Structure formats: structure tokens, C-alpha cells
Amino acid sequence: METGVIEQYIEDNVLSPFPQVLRTERPDKTINALTIGKVVIVLDGTPFILMTPVTFSDLMKATEDNYDRWHISSFTRLLRYLAAFMAVFLPGLYIAMVSYHQGMIPTVFALSIAGTREGVPFPAFIEAFLMEITFELLREAGIRLPRPIGQTIGIVGGLVIGDAAVRAGIVSPVMVIVVAITAIASFAIPAYNVSITFRLLRFAVMIAAALFGLYGIVITYILINIHLVGLRSFGSYYTSPFAPYKFGEWLDLMIRAPLVLLKNRPAEPKILDKKKKEM
């Protein structure tokens, strides 16, 4: 049995697309999880271990954050949150602006977009959908093929198909740029299982944007947040310390304060000993 199978059996909400258990094969990340009071599940015969409970902020942290100076770690964390937003909402925002809210685009930029879309037979949603599906196919093919060939397929395939699609007038150059930035942003997420979730949510946001414009994006954003607030991981609040709000834990949230200031364990999970153990 593999840890991925156990993960699916022990999740609080099996219908949620968000991972409620964190998998890793790094010993340093495992030790760090133990020092802050998390439970680690080790399975014989597999290099991966499971860490519980998990909050959304845990999925946005990388082990390397503790090894760099706090200025660098804080900057990279902020970049990750920006990347997460772009990975989910950027194509939808482009679709909404081009299809419904052209007046919100600066005139010069709007004329430039209109010029690049001249001759494209599809609406923005179909453009984005075709490009996203193509990139997902390339990504999946790159995973299944041997590593040297897979990397070549991903890079060369993306360049060739993108250039050919623009030359054929199937998609606009701006759409290729938007999809490429979105793909790069999804790779900036430390936890692979949550990056897959973002890729799935991206399609939902695109559909909402195609149907209702910015209103659809806002509604989708609200629904995602409602789901996250109600989600639990082994009884712990998934959105802690965003909600419930805990000011003291923001020192190790979107920024990472100097390690000498991070002496307490997080509020989730609820444990009696609040002092972080030495590594």
C-alpha cells in the first residue's frame, strides 16, 4: 500500500479538491513538522511520509525558507502567494476583460490586444481552453516519458505548438503569453498536490468568467473561500491563522520573521506544549 491510498482514507472531506494531508520525502521537512507538533505517518516500503494536520499556509511554505535569511524567505513567500493567485485567476481575468469589460483596459493596450486578435476565429474562452488543455497534455506527457525526453517534450512542444498556433491564427500572441505565465506560476507552488488543485480551479474560474465576466470571478472567489473556511484537517482549521485570525502567527505566514522570534508552535493543531522544540 502507498501513502497516497492512506491519505484518501484519512481525509476529513474526501470531496474537497484541496489536500488535507501533506506528503513529503524530505527528512528535514519531516523533522520540522515534528518540532511544531504535527503528526507524521511513516509507511514501510515507500519513501513518502504523511504529515497531519495541515493548513493552507503549510502548503505555501518551503523547507528552504528556514535556510535563507528572513528577507529572502519573506520575498519568496510573497511571490508564491502571488503565483497562486495568478495560477487560478489570470486566464479568467483575461477572458473577462476581453469579453465583457473592455472599457477597463487602457486604450493603447486594448488596441494592441484587438490587433493581435484580428483574424482569430474563436472567442477568448475557447482560445484559453484550447491552450490550457494543450499545456496540460504536454505536462502529462512529460511526466510519463523518461526524464530527458520528458523535459524536451515539455519545452520544445510548448514553443513549437504555441508558435504554430499563433501563425495559424488559432490563438492570439497575448493568449499564449497569459497561458505561459499561468503555467510558470503553477510551478512556483511548493506542494505538488495543491498545484494540481489550482490547475483544476483555473478551469472553473475560466468558465465563470466566460459566462458572467468579473462578477463570475468574484462569485467563484467567494465560493472557494467559503469552502476553505469550512474545511478541517483532523479537526484543525484549514485556513488558520487567516480564519480564525491569529495575529501572532503572521510572523510566519506570508512573511517569515527571523528565526529567533519564532519560538512558539502554531495554534493548529491544538496541543498543550506551545513552545517549539529545538531541531
TrEMBL record:
Major site of localization recorded for this protein: membrane
Entry superkingdom: Bacteria
Subcellular location: Membrane
Transmembrane segments: 78-100, 174-194, 200-224
Coiled coil: none
GO biological process, one term: spore germination
Database matches in Pfam families: GerA
Name of protein: Spore germination protein GerKA
